Amino acid sequence: MELTRRNFVKLGLTAGTTLAVEDSLGLFARAMEMKLGGDGRLVDPSEDLTKGRRYDKVVPYTCLACNIEDGGLAYIKNGRIEKLEGNPKHPSTRGRLCPKGNAGLYHVYDPDRILYPLRRTGPRGSGQWKRVSWDEAISEVAERIVEVLDKGHPNEIMLKWGRNRIGGALVRFMHTLGSNTIINHTSICESSKKIGMEPTWGPDIETPDFAKSKYIINFGSNILEAAYFHNPYSQRIMEGFAESGTKLVTFDVRLSNTAGRSHEWFPIFPGTDGIIALAMGNVILQEGLADEEFINDWTNVTVQELKEHYRQFTPEDAERASKGPFGDKGGISRHDIVRIAREFASVKPYCTTYSYRGPCKHAYGSYNEKCQMMLNILVGSVESKGGYCLPRGMGYKQPEPVPPPGHEPSYLSAPPHYPLATHKVSHLVPFWIKEGRQKVKIYFTYCDNPVYTNPGAEAVWGELVRDESLIPFFVSFSPFMSETTRYADIILPNAVYLERYEPESMPSSLWPWLGARQPVVKPMGEAQEVRWTLKRIIDKVDPDGKRGMKKYWNFSSPEDYIRQQFEGIPGLKDVGGWEFIKKHGVWPIYGELNPATGKISDALGFEIKAEYGLHKKELSRADMRGARVDRRTGTIYKKGKPIGVRIKGKNYVGFGTPTRKIHVKVEEWEKYGFNPLPVWKQEPWLADMKPDEMVLTTFKWNVHTQSRTASIKWLAEIVHSNPAWINADTARKKGIKDGDLIRITSGVGYMVTKARLTEGIHPRVVAVSTACGHWAYGRLAQLKLKESQPFWSKGQRIPVPAKPGVGQDPDLKNVWWNDRGVHPNMIIPAIADPIGGSQAWYSTVVKVEKARPGDRYGDVKADPDKHYEFFKMGERYAYTGDLHRKMHPEVKINWEKLPKPELKIGH
Amino acid sequence: MEERLGMEEIAEGRSRLYLILSRVFLKEVSPEFLRSMREKGFVEYLKGLGIDLGEDFANKEEKELLEELAAEYTQLFIAPAGASPYESVWKKGLLMQEPAAEALAFYKRCGFKLPEDFKGFPDQIGVELSFLGHLTREEARAWKEGDERLATEVMKLEREFLKKHLRKWVFDFLDCVMAITKLPFYREMARLTKEFLKGEMEDLGIKLDRSVA
Question: Of A108, A659, B111, B119, which alpha carbon lies 20 to 30 A from A192's?
Fold first, then answer.
């Protein structure tokens, strides 16, 4: 017999009638009878969904393509997002999104999205899966949890997140289980910046008033493109250029577009920002340009003390350091240091510094951050118009009751030899697990891709999660098959940010705001919000409430949770609470966006005014009732807590420090043998470099996040490959031409990539961007589909001849590039700042040479054992290590009596 | 076998086959679906047509076979990097684009609706085939009731849907399934679907692309 039409019909009529096809049969129901109309055609009484209005609705939301949290509007037609735009009511972002935000709908409709729970069926990383029901997946996870809990070691459950903006539910989940093994991603991000600032003035970030500033010194930040708050801040820097005559001076190893747009750019040797800032501070102090009254009134040191301390940091030394150990071209001259210090101080207090990621991502990054922050303190531009302002955030609530932390301290979460690193030292966790410092039975990963984003990548985190004896059970809450998620035992598909309810607030301008994400469309497939997934897990772990867990998960829907978070907030309550935020996306609404100026205007058409001098807000008589003033420091205490500071007879709220003054001197640091005053320390491996060595640094693009956007089509077309930036002079000496294949070798491995010759980089630096060179994360990230068009499967070319016309993905016909880039993280060792715990991203010593015979583009090799050696070397600089004291000969304490490392429940 | 088939029977047979093929692609093979295929001579009938679902399909222990089929279904249609079963992906490179909305509008226009709690995609291959199964059932009913004008109108709708929604991508999709699947069941079912749809389109006067072998 043949496959003729007649036979098909017979097949259906005879053999087919007994088949169980209820699922297909029951899929559609009749909404109405099918009958002919008067014209003999089928009547069509329903409206055609594809015609009609341009958009069905516009839904406000808060962006999370990256962590700037812009206000957005989603334009919906037929249940589909047609476009995303900025929300004009948002006081920080004022109606603008960045390219990543505009392309956000691609996260929702990504053809490689995980839409159903998956269970691994082959070995870890084999890519073999079976779809399971939510109930089955959750039951399995709950069983594993119960097993751990019943043995009495809840800390063996570890959760590590990358981008946690879900309003507290992850910590709630872990504390509900009684585990303190909560690991974040901050140490590969900016933790040493936070640690540089927090003990000094309280908050972990600054909000400079760029628009009104006369002078900005930018240390190592690509603020117009990629640094924290790039969208709102780039708007304000441009405003400053146009309206305030702002001068922008940038220190960066690389000519970023921010450096290019600056009035002056100094290509300094990596990590020398600190000594340059100190030398400028010295000039300001010795030349009498400081705001001495501010220092004497508002800090815990005197001008005299500072003058004496700063005297050691000469412009000559800073010049020398800035050129690097071999006196290369570039850096900054002593004359320019003096000139810029004078210029900066001459416009005080309308001046500010800014720093992001450059200075703080060094082994002594916390010192670097502190040094640059000090310039603002010296000239008194703190909290002034045009100056270096405190962040203005707003809080939302946690639904009651809130579970207390677990009973046992977690080594991984609060490593005792990094007592000052209160934002954790998460990138060293794999080594500690390997050494058995804490056992892990279950590892939950949320919006995190350490196998790609962390130092060592596959050679460190891949080693960890491949090893089932170290991580017996691995669960990923992820919508995408990332380099990390592909090793999971169970994948629970999370809704992407445009499908979730989450509260938000960010100090991204001088106008505080509260906002939220809400689903602009329903979650695709069976994806669901992680908050709901966690509740379902708890419901299974504690079905009858006997474990005392259920009471912490008392909400009926994800929306109910967020409604509770926005309940009873003064002011918001009066205008409708959560319903107001749902409707407008943000609260308060300060005014209207004026399209002519791009600013928010009040009812009279004037730009809304910012409030300055938050620390000088005076305490009321009621505040002072029952308060006590410390005679020596002026600190005002009430019920044992500092609430303000008395200065020249006035009672101010002051800063968020124990004395309510700025702590130029941080005694807590000295306790552990660190210098309490601003100093600069260079990593010894940079000071001791050999003449043929260079420093590898990384950077971020304006159109990409670190790891989550390589498959976003609009963005991948703009940036998809990442040749190594190398100075043309340096390259010439090494016989390297533009586009040549080069080998970059660090102490742990090597990579083979292409050279991009430029004058725009310090001669001793080679820079390779992040975001490229994926080996997972979807079709454009890997470029696999293109290789085997029209079919793609498991990275193999399919033996079917490519056809003209439609392929699996018509966009791939437009993929004109064949280069997906090379990712550098595998050859970057994991080193932590002994104070702030931050990864030293920008101090990897490498050799750069022409590729060797047999080298292929994209080769990356790293040795896990060498990574381990570097980790051990790094730990020698911790306060408990043998090199700590050598690095701090100037600290006069009793070195024999350093505090013992203590395992504590804490950060 | 030489008896003439009436229009009602033809529509009924086609409808049945659409629903069977829909079921194959809609979700994993259930124990009921497997048993009904194995027990009632379906496998043998297919063999007679030159479609061999393989030794394993006929003989393997049920639970093991179901696991294997489910894992393969996941690899093909659920996990990334398989053969995407969505019209929108093949036509627009993204999930849930205009083809999905247009398919939904088409269903509504013909008086059909998906369940309220439907979490799938209106342009998934199994959903589109199921819709054609329902449409052809309507056709059969019209023939049965002697309403030739209605039957003809329904056939126009079948033609329109096949042309608008399946012609441009379904053959590439089925070729892709045949190329990457490791199990004869999905390979042969894709082949059966391909041949059936080719016949359907030819019969309804839809010009096929030259590339459809």
Answer: A659
- Asked which of A328, A354, A389 is the last residue of a domain, the reply is A389
* All residues at 6 or more sequence positions from A309 whose CB lies less than 8 Å from its CB, including other chains: A677, A678
CB A229 within 8 A of CB A68: yes
DSSP three-state, residue A725: strand
**Does residue A791 surpass a pLDDT of 50?**
no
Short-list A222, A321, A330, CA closest to A272? A321
Give the pair of three-digit tokens for residue A741: 């294949």
Pair A776, A711: CB distance under 8 Å: no
A563 part of a folded domain = no
Place of tokens 């001791």: A688
Report the C-alpha gap between A413 and A418 in whole angstroms: 11
- The SS3 call for residue B56 is helix
* Distance in angstroms (rounded) separating the CA atoms of residues A204 and A360: 13
Domain hosting residue A659, numbered range: 615-671
Please check whether residue A340 lies inside any domain of the structure.
yes
Domain residue limits at B99: 7-203
Q: Which two tokens stand for residue A745?
A: 């070798």
Judge whether A333 is closer than 8 Å to chain B, CB to CB. Answer: no
B154, B142 contact by CB (below 8 A): yes
Residue A715 vs residues A85, A106, A493, A858: alpha-carbon distances, Å: 16, 10, 24, 21
Q: A703 and A664, same structural domain?
A: no
CA B175, chain centre distance (Å): 14
Among A74, A107, A71, CA closest to A708: A107
pLDDT 10s digits, A690-739: 999 999 999 999 999 999 999 999 999 999 999 999 999 999 999 999 99
> How many distinct structural domains can be found in chain A?
3
When CB atoms are compared, the residue of B5, B67, B154 closest to A9 is B5
Q: What is the DSSP letter of A656?
A: S
Q: Are residues A654 and A767 in the same domain?
A: no
Q: Read off the pLDDT band of A806 (50, 70, 90).
A: very low
A35 near B CB under 8 A: yes
Q: Decide: A787 and A797 in contact? Cβ < 8 Å.
A: yes
Give Rg (Cα) of chain B: 17
- Collapse the DSSP code of A341 into the 3-class scheme (helix H, G, I; strand E, B; otherwise coil) and give the result: helix
Q: Is residue A329 part of a domain?
A: yes
pLDDT in tens, A592-615: 999 889 999 998 999 999 999 999
Residue A415 within a domain = no
Could you tell me how many CB contacts below 8 A there are between chain A and chain B?
282
- Provide the total of helices (H) and of strands (E) in chain B, helices listed first: 11, 1
The whole-angstrom distance between A560's CA and the closest CA on chain B is 20
Give me A485's structure tokens. Answer: 């998620």
φ, ψ of residue A774 in degrees (nearest 5): -70, 155
Q: What is the CATH number of the domain that holds A827?
A: 2.40.40.20
CATH code assigned at B90: 1.10.3480.10
